[in-house]
Design goal:
The protein is mainly α. It is 63% helix and 0% strand. It is globular and about 40 Å long.
Length: 153
């Protein structure tokens, strides 16, 4: 989450324009020919890369249908949240990072309530996450390497 929000923070106007579909306008004021399909393809490729990275982080190579729904829904949630955050940054960034992680867990938990395969996955993911919600770099040195420590994603 840190890398994603760093990118959003560093490229706010460009990220916002890209995700909101503009400006796909040429210098002359008209729509640039072929820009929308190319832009959509770029956005789709970034979303697919995020999807693949999340599955790799979870250690899943063949996601069940419900996990695909959760991950793709969460990617949309993260994009929308980032856009809203750029419009005023009313939530401190560190809190937003943690909220997005919790949002993923919540979406997974709702799905797990209806699907045993998702329940097994959720238990495994939660068992591997730090109980204090802090990334490795934020923890005191004596905790490094403790059970449940995980690299930042």
């Amino acid at each position: 989450m840190g890398r994603f929000l760093s990118f959003v923070d560093d490229h706010g106007p460009g990220f916002s324009a890209l995700m909101r579909g503009g400006p796909a306008v040429s210098a002359g004021g008209g729509c640039a020919v072929g820009t929308a399909p190319a832009t959509n393809a770029l956005i789709d490729s970034v979303r697919q890369a995020a999807y693949d990275q999340i599955l790799a982080h979870l250690g899943v190579t063949e996601p069940p249908a419900r996990l695909e729904l959760v991950v793709r829904s969460w990617i949309s949630l993260a994009e929308t949240t980032a856009l809203l955050w750029l419009d005023g940054r009313r939530v401190p960034r560190a809190e937003l990072e943690l909220q997005l992680v919790h949002d993923f867990a919540a979406l997974t938990a709702v799905s797990a309530a209806y699907d045993e395969e998702m329940a097994v996955l959720l238990r495994a993911v939660l068992a591997d996450e730090p109980t204090d919600g802090r990334r490795r770099a934020d923890r005191p040195a004596h905790r490094a390497g403790a059970v449940g420590d995980r690299c930042e994603t």
